[in-house]
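Technical annex, item 7. During the second reporting period the consortium partners agreed on a shared format for inverse folding records so that results from different sites could be compared directly. Each record opens with the tokenized structure and is followed by the designed sequence. A conforming record, contributed by the partner at site C, is shown below for reference.
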């Protein structure tokens, strides 16, 4: 079984068990899953893989490392613990065979699998708990990020959507949401759709609910919202149960769909995080 199929099967299983899509797996900790030695946060599909693993096994730590890395820190993986598989796309350049060759020098990505253990799975390591500054307001941070996108956002009515023809986002008033977290999660979902415009991340949108492109874009938007919520300390979860059947079909039809969606979601999130408009266009 390929790593693509293994990952896809694990996501399908979570959806079939009723897991709230994409946001819920990242509730365990307010910080992103990161390598305990490099301190670098995992990105793309690995965020999803580690999030699902933490949710299903109850890990509260955001620290991960390979077996060898834990040994380097003087820690030992507990007997019987199972690793979580993550992936790495290693760039490879095909060598030029000779001066006359037209086939060499091409680059491609080689998918490699490696295995990591959570800090909760080892002995001999004291995990540092996340320190929360009581003066820090993650919702204010989210407001600032939304304004800096420069996106046109209007409030009112009882629907949330991105309109490509008007290049604008419509959201219900914040008071209509059951929590402020849900409001920001929804805003980030629609902002991920907003990045689909040709001048931004250039993704193809579906034309109607239920078609394959529509279902795939919803996968991208949910995952993009999850990444952005996590980056801003937001713990709300989206409730898009009506999409689950379409997502399941999308995943079953293409065992690389979740990898593709994760990569595009990460690209959208990075795009949004890199914007710094001087004045937002958010209407009351």
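Designed sequence (site C submission):
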């Amino acid at each position: 079984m390929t790593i693509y199929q293994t990952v896809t099967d694990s996501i399908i299983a979570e959806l079939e068990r009723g897991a709230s899509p994409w946001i819920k797996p990242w509730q365990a900790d307010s910080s992103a899953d990161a390598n305990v030695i490099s301190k670098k946060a995992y990105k793309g599909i690995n965020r999803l893989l580690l999030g699902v693993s933490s949710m299903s096994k109850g890990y509260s730590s955001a620290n991960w490392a390979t077996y060898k890395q834990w040994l380097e820190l003087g820690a030992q993986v507990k007997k019987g613990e199972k690793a979580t598989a993550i992936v790495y796309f290693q760039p490879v350049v095909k060598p030029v065979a000779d001066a006359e060759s037209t086939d060499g020098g091409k680059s491609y990505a080689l998918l490699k699998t490696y295995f990591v253990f959570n800090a909760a799975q080892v002995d001999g390591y004291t995990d540092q708990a996340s320190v929360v500054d009581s003066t820090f307001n993650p919702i204010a941070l989210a407001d600032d990020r939304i304004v800096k996108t420069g996106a046109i956002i209007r409030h009112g009515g009882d629907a949330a959507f991105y309109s490509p023809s008007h290049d604008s986002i419509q959201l219900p008033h914040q008071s209509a949401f059951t929590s402020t977290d849900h409001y920001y999660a929804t805003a980030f979902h629609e902002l991920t759709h907003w990045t689909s415009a040709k001048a931004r991340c250039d993704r193809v949108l579906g034309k109607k609910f239920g078609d394959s492109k529509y279902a795939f874009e919803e996968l991208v938007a949910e995952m993009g919202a999850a990444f952005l919520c996590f980056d801003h300390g937001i713990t709300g979860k989206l409730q898009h149960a009506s999409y689950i059947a379409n997502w399941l079909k999308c995943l079953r039809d293409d065992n690389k769909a979740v990898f593709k969606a994760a990569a595009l979601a990460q690209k959208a999130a990075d795009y949004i995080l890199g914007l710094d408009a001087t004045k937002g266009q958010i209407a009351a």
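Residues 138-282 form one domain. The mean pLDDT is 76. All partners now use this format for quarterly exchanges.
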